[in-house]
Every structure is written in structure tokens, then in C-alpha cells.
Write a structure and sequence with these properties.
- The chain has about 130 residues and is α+β, with helices and mostly antiparallel strands.
- It is built from three helices and five strands.
- It has a five-stranded antiparallel beta sheet.
- A hairpin with a 3-residue loop joins strand 1 and strand 2.
- Helix 2 crosses helix 3.
- It is globular and about 40 Å long.
């Protein structure tokens, strides 16, 4: 079975990309928890953090740059960073990825992290982030 995120990296599956560099790309999650929920993935296939821990170091600059971009462009009050390793931890796509979830003062705290906002217009959010 082909890897979904490898297909996105290759451009075979469209995405709402917000950042890219030589080691990683970042794109909006198609089923976001909150406005601006973005995934950062390495360009090369890595199953998870435990398989190749150095992959996290490789994508760290993309995580930092994307985090700043999201907070600045969306006027977020904070941001959660999360990654799951293994099915028991909730990993659904077995290609290393880091969730960046902008957070806003009107819905603070970890309890609200996994309560999905309804009616998020991904195209509008994408335009707001990339400036198109």
C-alpha cells in the first residue's frame, strides 16, 4: 500500500501546503481540530519517531518556521505541538508527522485540544496563511 504522505510530498495528491524546505513540507490537515491545524512531514519516508529519531532533528527547522508562520498569520495566542508513534498512541498514517495546532484564548487548555471546531473553511485559512 502506498504511503499517503509520500504521495502528498511527491505532489500526486493535492494539499494546502503552507511551508516547504529541503527536508520537510507542511500542509493543512484535511480534518482539523482547530483553525490552522497543520502537519509537518519529512520529505523522505520515515515510519515514526522511534524508527529514525534523527528525522525529527531534520524537520525541526520546518516545525519552527511553520509554527511562527501560523501564530503570526492567524494571530494565535498559543500553539500545541504533538506527534504520535504507533497505533496504540493514535498514529493513523505511518509516516512521521508533527501536528501544529494554533490555539486561541476563547478555547484554551488541553481539554479543548481534541474538541474539533466545526465549519472550518480550509481554503480561506490557507489563503490567510500563505497570503494568496
Amino acid at each position: 500500500m502506498a504511503c499517503l504522505f509520500c504521495s502528498i510530498v511527491a505532489g500526486d495528491i493535492p494539499s494546502r501546503q503552507v511551508y516547504a524546505d529541503g527536508h520537510a513540507i507542511a500542509f493543512l490537515d484535511i480534518s482539523p481540530w482547530h483553525v490552522g491545524h497543520t502537519l509537518v512531514v519529512p520529505r523522505r519516508h520515515v515510519d515514526d519517531l522511534l524508527g529514525e529519531p534523527e528525522a525529527l532533528t531534520e524537520i525541526a527547522p520546518a516545525i519552527a518556521a511553520t509554527s511562527r508562520l501560523l501564530v503570526d498569520r492567524l494571530a494565535a495566542d498559543g500553539l500545541n505541538l504533538m506527534s504520535s508513534t504507533g497505533a496504540a498512541a493514535g498514529q493513523e498514517v505511518f509516516h512521521l508527522h508533527v501536528h501544529l495546532v494554533p490555539r486561541f484564548a476563547h478555547r484554551p487548555g488541553l481539554r479543548e485540544l481534541f474538541v474539533r471546531e466545526k465549519g472550518i473553511d480550509l481554503d480561506r485559512v490557507h489563503r490567510q496563511i500563505v497570503g494568496d
